[in-house]
């Protein structure tokens, strides 16, 4: 199997605002909240407006405009219990979790939610979050080697009995998890996401994950990553789906959308953005090929801290829908959307953008899998 054709329709996820400060580091008004009641209503709104996934963020202490943060796995479970169809992805850091403990939590969450819990493996971005907790901070490629083992251990524990795993970072001896996740045709084992942009992230995504999550990218950036991801997936005789981050500014007119972007950047919290830039760009620049996350991000890109502006989902509903379908034709399987005013804009997206996406998809020629020699 390969990743040329995963699904006929692109899927949609949204960033859960379980971290204060919104998704842009700017003093512009952001009608959002990190509290549970707001997020409970938002999750219900999202699943009723065409969103299939939500991603809970992970931060452990105040940093770069985010003063407060709820823990991702517990918050994800709360949202799962408040919804009926939405799949919620909890971001986690290897190095701060033992994979067998997370596997146990994941199996329980899977049963409580009827198979809707998922995990996004974040290989590490803020050094201080590790050192302040007394944990070692590994160099970039070592963090991804650890993530590779983490992904393998999770899958083995969820699918096998009497698990033995002897790696450089994790050792599991004759361990059997009961109950395992539901693992039915309708609700397979919890999906595993690998976040990142680097060559190491692409290897992990292709070999071990169900999904690969990319920071915001233009068409060329997506194509370059997909080529690598497909190669690694083919070599491992498996398939990996591709998720792309994008900050969505859909407005009735293009001028209104562009003016909103301009105001976000003009009102950027410059010390916070510069601090974030200094903290994260060492990760991408520490890789041998300089392909890591944020390696080439500008100040303006980092006002949305996962490069969401670079995907350019900005304009009228028609313009945003056309660009989403163009990404789908390249091979993108999911758009992870961020918003300025979450509740109103997710409703606007569901009413005005998503129907156009489905209409445009229906008009497209099928993306066929190429013949193999």
UniProtKB/TrEMBL annotation:
Residues forming coiled coils: none
InterPro entries: DMSO2_SphG, Luciferase-like_dom, Luciferase-like_sf, SsuD_RutA_monooxygenase
GO MF: alkanesulfonate monooxygenase activity
Alphabetic keyword roster: Flavoprotein, FMN, Monooxygenase, Oxidoreductase
Keyword Coiled coil annotated: no
Domain of life: Bacteria
GO biological process terms, semicolon-separated: alkanesulfonate catabolic process
Domain Luciferase-like per the UniProt entry, residue ranges: 11-333
Record bears the keyword Flavoprotein: yes
PANTHER family hit by this protein: ALKANESULFONATE MONOOXYGENASE, ALKANESULFONATE MONOOXYGENASE-RELATED
Listed name of the protein: Dimethyl sulfone monooxygenase SfnG
Gene name for this UniProt entry: sfnG
């Amino acid at each position: 199997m390969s990743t040329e054709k995963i699904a006929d329709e692109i899927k949609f996820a949204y960033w859960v605002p379980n971290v204060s400060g919104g998704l842009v580091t700017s003093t512009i008004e952001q009608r959002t909240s990190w509290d549970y009641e707001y997020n409970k209503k938002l999750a219900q709104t999202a699943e009723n407006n065409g969103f299939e996934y939500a991603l809970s963020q992970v931060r452990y202490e105040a940093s770069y405009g985010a003063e407060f943060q709820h823990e991702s796995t517990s918050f994800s479970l709360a949202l799962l219990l408040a919804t009926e169809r939405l799949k919620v992805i909890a971001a986690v850091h290897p190095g701060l979790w033992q994979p067998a403990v997370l596997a146990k939590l994941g199996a329980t969450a899977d049963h409580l939610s009827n198979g809707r819990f998922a995990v996004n493996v974040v290989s590490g971005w803020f050094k201080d979050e590790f050192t302040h907790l007394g944990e070692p901070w590994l160099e970039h490629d070592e963090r991804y080697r650890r993530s590779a083992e983490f992904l393998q251990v999770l899958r083995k524990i969820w699918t096998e009995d009497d698990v033995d795993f002897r790696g450089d970072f994790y050792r599991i001896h004759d361990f059997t998890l009961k109950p395992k996740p539901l693992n039915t045709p309708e609700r397979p084992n919890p999906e595993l996401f690998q976040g990142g942009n680097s060559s190491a992230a692409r290897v992990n995504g292709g070999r071990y994950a169900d999904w690969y999550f990319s920071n915001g990218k233009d068409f060329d950036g997506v194509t370059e990553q997909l080529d690598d991801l497909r190669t690694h997936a083919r070599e491992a005789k498996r398939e990996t789906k591709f998720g792309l981050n994008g900050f969505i500014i859909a407005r009735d007119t293009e001028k209104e959308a562009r003016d909103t972007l301009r105001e976000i950047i003009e009102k950027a919290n410059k010390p916070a953005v510069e601090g974030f830039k200094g903290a994260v760009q060492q990760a991408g620049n520490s890789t041998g090929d300089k392909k890591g996350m944020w390696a080439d991000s500008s100040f303006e890109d980092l006002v949305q801290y996962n490069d969401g502006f670079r995907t350019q989902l900005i304009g009228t509903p028609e313009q945003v829908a056309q660009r989403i379908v163009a990404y789908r034709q390249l091979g993108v399987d999911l758009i992870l959307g961020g918003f300025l005013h979450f509740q109103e804009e997710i409703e606007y997206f569901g009413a005005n953008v998503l129907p156009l996406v489905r209409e445009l998809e229906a008009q497209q020629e099928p993306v066929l899998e190429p013949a193999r020699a």
